[in-house]
Structure formats: structure tokens, C-alpha cells
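Sample entry (270 residues):
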Amino acid sequence: MVDYSEIVQGGDEAALRAFIAAHTGNVFAGTEYTQVFIGQLPTEEPLHSLPIPPQTQVAGSIVQQQPQLLLISELAPADVKAFYVDAISKMDWQPAAGGHMRTGFFDTQTEVFNYCNEARHQTLFGYIQAIADRTYIRITVSKSMNPCNDPQGYMKYMTAIPNLSAPQGVSLLPSSFSSGSTGGMDHFEARTSAVARWSGTLADLYQAYVPLLESVDWQMHTESLTDKAAVSWWDVTLDDETWQGVFSVLAKPKSPDLYVLMLTLGMSVA
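Predicted structure, serialized as C-alpha cells:
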């Protein structure tokens, strides 16, 4: 189990509450109003009515523009996902475009689910990861004009980023995962990143991921390797169009066993 005493140190309850209020930005003018509920469900739907799996406790919730529910479970990630897939299928939600896709950097003990509600204009995303003997769950609700559709085709391009499950010996830091996309009339870019803990060399870490890209027909045309960074440029064919991918591994300063992993896929229309 995660040792919380190493993560949160010093102070008393009053100091902790003051820190949370300051950290969420509530004490600064012009910032988004945020509420934090310790050990409680949020009052907002649909998170308030979501069932809680057995052997699972509510760590808390954060109410802001994108409300979040945080849970800690003794169940395995696959069992937590199965519980929510069954429960949400009985509610007025449907799988979002792309379904429960796993794209980008993932630890081997990670699961996701993704649902939408057209009437609410909302998406419901779950991220589930095992750390030591506990499973940590983050469920987020977001607003969207077309939650159950993909009118610009962005989701199709996000799925072109492969499932980059961590190779043997690679540990991805919790909460370091990031994925997203940006697009417009003349440009679209999908991206994913994470921080990896690795006891070997930067070059070996880079080489561990290259076969994962090659296995989904990414074609490397240039690469550059130093002791601080490894970067490669790739061609990817989507719907008879050639897109450009960039994969990089960067050494973190003053952290000899930590590396930043980044992958982008983009196309510009002349």
C-alpha cells in the first residue's frame, strides 16, 4: 500500500485544509471555484449516484469544471472495470466514440472506460491503476457539445496512437500519464506522455519502445540519440494520408532513473 506519510508530511488538520484551499486556487481572485470533499461523494450527478464497488472506499471528490471522484479498492483493475461496465450499462449512458480504447503510455496494471450521455452533453471517463496492493480509481465528468459523436474524426486519429504498455522493467509513475488532442481547420495533433522509472540506460529504454511502434506499421525515417535524449521521426499512413509521428525519451535532470516519454502524431494541411 502507498505510504501516505511519505507523500503528505507535517502540519495539522487546519494547516492541511488551508493548503488544499490554496492549492485549488480558491483564495486567488479570478480562479475557478473548487470544492474538495474528503472521504465523500460529490453532490453533483452523475458521480453522486454512481455505485461503489465492493472492497472499495471513497477517498474523496473534487467539484470543479471537470468533477472527479477518487476511490481506493482492494479489487484488481480488471475487476473494477468489469463492475463499472456492468453498472453504467444499466444507466442512461453509452460507450463513447473510441469505446474503452487504451492508447498511449500505460502501465501493465491499468484499465480505462469511457462513456457518454447525449442529453446531458457529458462524457464519463474512468482511469484505474494498481499500485502495490491497492487499486486507485479516478472518474472524471466533462462537458461536450457532441459527447457521443466524433464529427471531426479526432477520435479516429487518437486511436492511431498504439497501446504503449510498459515493457518489462519499466515502471510508469502514478499520475504522470497524459493524453490529449488539438485540432483546427488546417492542423490536428494527438499526443501522449508519461514519466518512467528505469534502471538501465536511456538508449535501452528508447529501444524497448521502438518495436511497439513498428508493430503497428509506424515507419521510422530519422532518429537522433545522445546520452540526454533520444528522438525519432516516423511516417504513419491513415486513410491514404501520410501523418508525422515523433517519439522522444528525455532524461530528467538530477533524477538518474527517471525519463520523460513523449509521443505525438500530427498532420498539417497546406
